């Protein structure tokens, strides 16, 4: 990578799960470099959702290198997710026709609830289907969300507070788009609201988002959150992290008990 950048540039890892992100520095210049980043980075940059895209280059081996403006900012705290700016930016993403059109033209298929359910169950061993997990799966299967084709949007699919960056000018960005999906917007809304926004504040948050929290939407939030709880319980159990597994199991049981609130 340093050879590709040219003389005088120094690279250091920028962290992240893929290990393909770097900070490149030359004197006072600093840029963010990534190998094989999201192919619709240009659209995200043009809409101000991510820091400005500076250039894109393709290597001889087919890899694509992108350079973005370096943002001297900070990650949002969990307590800051309950604000109108977060709601507004997520609404902008979910309502972007340009993002959706590009994603679909790339051949991406919508992640419908049935596919999500099958992906979860296919990764599960019979030993892992204890009483609590089995009951949650039964609730999910009995109450599949019905989604018309025009309800699918581009979802970030990892709206953890660490992926929200505020720069020195108070501009807000949502980064790390490697796992983006065409899906029900509730796929993003469920983890954000359940994790960061007290239920008493949901109406106000949705007002900033531009949506009314009607029964069908609340049902879909519940459905996606329950399947996310199953995934997290199993993830932490497999890693031997008992405290975190227990935390997610507590939430799973609570959501399972709320199944009767929805007559779908």
From TrEMBL:
InterPro entries under this entry? Aminoglycoside_PTrfase (IPR002575), CcrZ_PhaseVar_Mediator (IPR052077), Kinase-like_dom_sf (IPR011009)
Q: Which residues form a coiled coil?
A: none
Residues forming the Aminoglycoside phosphotransferase domain are 40-212
The record's section on Pfam families has: APH
State the name under which the record lists this protein. Answer: Phosphotransferase family protein
